[in-house]
Design goal:
This protein is mainly alpha-helical. Helices cover about 75% and strands about 0% of the residues.
Length: about 200
Amino acid sequence: MTNTNDLQSLLKRIEKATARLEDLAAKRSETTKPDEPSKASTDASVDVEDSKAALEYERAIKPLVEHFVSCSAKIGGLVSDQAQFVQQLYTAQHDFVRLAGTCKQPSPSQLPTLLGAQQSAIQSACALKDANRPSEYFDNLSAVAEGVAAFGWVAVAPTPVPFVNDMKESAEFYTNRVLRKWRESDPNQVEWVKALLSIFR
């Protein structure tokens, strides 16, 4: 994902694929007799569409997250520890996107359960930041804690892109501080900032 247009295009493709699957599920429900088992779990078209949505997400986001985790490992310590929560968050959201292709839109009461793994990873990233305010890497930790909220786009309707942009800008407040502090002394920090922000562009 290299810019806002890429993000918007990706989200629209995922939403479109999910909508088509919901239509297919509704049609099956109308045509299936009460004593006939549903074919939703075995229909090849569901698997194909679901794969398209999940693969699109994986192709766009996974390399960026992996690069960020790698850059965090070069800095080490708390920065690397927090990056593992970002990795967990990506994995949980990828699973959610894949699941979205096989079920109808959840009710408001069901959504928190489906988003539980993502929320847990976000909370862990924020808790690590809050527990380490004296750290010399507190700005790094704060940037991630602000930025990971962008993964909450899955619960934002109907236009998640502005929400993602807001979270990116919140992260940039702290990445600018990281650059001011480390630009001259640690090139790994400069690369780290680029890697983090690339996830939200």
